[in-house]
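Before going further, learn to read the protein records used in this course. Taken together, the tokens spell out the fold as the letters spell out the chain. A record is reproduced here so that you can trace the correspondence yourselves:

***
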Amino acid sequence: MSGIILFFAAFISLILSNSPWAEAFHHFWEIHFSIGFSGWQLSKSLHHWINDGLMAIFFFVVGLELKRELISGELSNPRNAALPIVAAIGGMLVPAVMYLVMNPSGAAAGGWGIPMATDIAFALGILSLLGDRVPVSLKVFLTALAIADDLGAVLVIAFFYTSEIDLASLLSGAGFFCLLLIGNRMGVRNVLFYGIVGVGGLWLAFLLSGVHATIAAVLAAFTIPARVKYDEITYNKKLDELRVCFKNACPNNFPTVTSEQLNILEEIRKVSKLAETPLQRLEHLLHPLVAFIIMPMFALANSGMSFSADSLTQLTTPITLGVFLGLLLGKMLGVVGFVTLFVRLKWVVLPEDFTGRLLIGAGFLAGVGFTMSLFISKLAFTNTAFVEEAKMGILLASTISGILGYFIIKNATKPV
């Protein structure tokens, strides 16, 4: 569902960008909003607040998912993690090289990171359209690949797409990061503490430092506690005790509960809260916000481009071709090629129900870059024309990759 909403947001953005309201639609995102106090003020356009602010929440959730996967998910077991990590590495290196072949020098060469990314929401959304016919192994593989890919994209942004560094702000951010780590080690589980220090301290310091603020979001996510206070045995024991207490409490024979029953229910809520990790609670809470509001807003603000007679010439520019071929072919060749190589070297093992056609289909779905690719294109280029060319390549490649991946997997899973 989130992938469908994301698609419609991008579609609406394209329609409005080519309508009589195109100029008003463009200027809407340039409206400035300011935050500040006592003479200090941070003023940015709505477009920047979405890309630097709301997308920080998106990257925060990415960080939460990464930490969970590394602790208890597919990436926690080296044997299970090897296959998607190998696929992700191939799916990042080959597109980047393919782009650089088309754009070997100059300002255009800075866009090599654009075709490296996979949009997990779109890719899994397309896969979900096939329903139960898709093997579980394929869903796990594509999810883990996209998460490993996200980690690669975060590292690329951190090391290669930063502006001039303000050392004082960066050191300040490091101090707030240490404070978050100390809170974790001391057993602080209140998400308000992590929110205030993470947003008011770490995120703001990184925003002013020149290192992209979304990196602060990922770092903050890794400080969120991933331990429970009550394990399963303790939780079940306390829950049984409270259930007996509630059963023995005198009812008032009214639709409302008694004060005694209310206190017991409140205690059950507290016990249940201590039996879950703050990391998973935050991830569960924020995921709908990111999937159904933040990502569609980002798509609405960043997908728009005007088509004209000159648009056809954009199709043949090195940037458009580099992004297009990198996502469409580079991703598939990288994923399939690296997995095939490492399987033959017997360093990784494919699941029994994972056929060659399914691997090719997954490789094409990995070429659906969209959100992350659009995001990196904004960091890679300051030239508006370059951004528009990259956007053209992203939209075309993501659309064709998604269609090819869908039909290849559909045919590969067709009942005999």
User: Anything to note?
Assistant: The first helix runs from residue 2 to 17. The chain has a mean pLDDT of 83. Strands lie at 32-37, 40-45.
